[in-house]
Write a structure and sequence with these properties.
This protein is an all-alpha fold. It is built from 12 helices and no strands.
């Protein structure tokens, strides 16, 4: 009986993460109203006076840069599933559940926006950027998008929003991990525009939304929020006690 409960607990722990791609695939079927690319393109012009999608590869037509940025774009899957897998494998179940809760929160917010304000994105609306190197990494990214992308889910960039939340939450566990995820997230956002997958404002909106949600989750959990400060306070107390012993 105990073994059955453990298996059921494992299934319950992982079910939200397993459900993400299936829920994502249904979004085009439940979106409300027409696509709003025209509105987002006007925001793009107002924010940048040009289209970053069209200008990025024209300014930097470099094969190595293209492959690196497309690789960073693909790192999204590592950013989503890597931290939960590592936490679970190390037996840090409560931290695993905190990470999953954070992921599901930002996914839910993005999915609601996709339903009420669907945006196809430049991959559907425009021709591919002319100067992007058609290397093996880009071809893998295009195949994955062709197989699993859902039209209407461009704004905000859930890739950037989710990766930003993961970065914010990772800093609480490890500054080194947070910095690594932060670097990957930055390159992911640039790669999304460089490859012609997202408008520039998609990426900006995803970053702002992810940062806001990540910080809100930290503040909502008093233990998470206070943890680093309590650790510093404990270290200071130990130093004071050591100094008192010396005296």
């Amino acid at each position: 009986m105990l073994a059955v409960r453990r298996r059921a607990g494992t299934v319950a722990d992982w079910l939200p993460l397993v459900a993400i791609p299936f829920l994502y695939a249904e979004l085009p079927h439940i979106a409300v109203g027409p696509l709003h690319d025209g509105i987002v393109q006007r925001w793009e012009a107002a924010a940048f006076n040009t289209s970053p999608v069209e200008s990025a590869s024209a300014h930097w037509p470099n094969a190595v840069l293209s492959e690196v940025l497309h690789g960073a774009y693909l790192s999204y899957y590592l950013i989503v599933y890597g931290p939960p897998i590592l936490l679970y494998a190390r037996g840090r179940i409560e931290e695993f559940r905190d990470a999953v809760a954070g992921l599901m929160t930002i996914f839910a917010i993005c999915y609601v926006i996709f339903m009420v304000f669907p945006v196809a994105g430049p991959r559907y609306e425009w021709a591919p950027p002319a100067n992007v190197f058609d290397g093996p990494v880009r071809r893998v990214a295009l195949r994955l998008l062709a197989a699993g992308s859902s039209k209407g889910t461009a704004f905000p960039s859930s890739h950037v929003a989710v990766a930003t939340v993961q970065t914010v939450l990772a800093f609480r566990r490890s500054a080194r991990t947070g910095l690594l995820l932060g670097a990957l997230t930055s390159c992911l956002g640039i790669g999304a525009v460089y490859g012609g997958f997202h408008y520039g404002v998609d990426v900006l909106a995803g970053g702002v939304l992810g940062l806001a949600v990540g910080l809100a989750l930290l503040c909502a959990d008093r233990d998470l929020f206070a943890g680093p400060f309590l650790s510093v306070a404990a270290s200071i107390q130990k130093v004071d006690e050591s100094a008192g012993d010396v005296k």
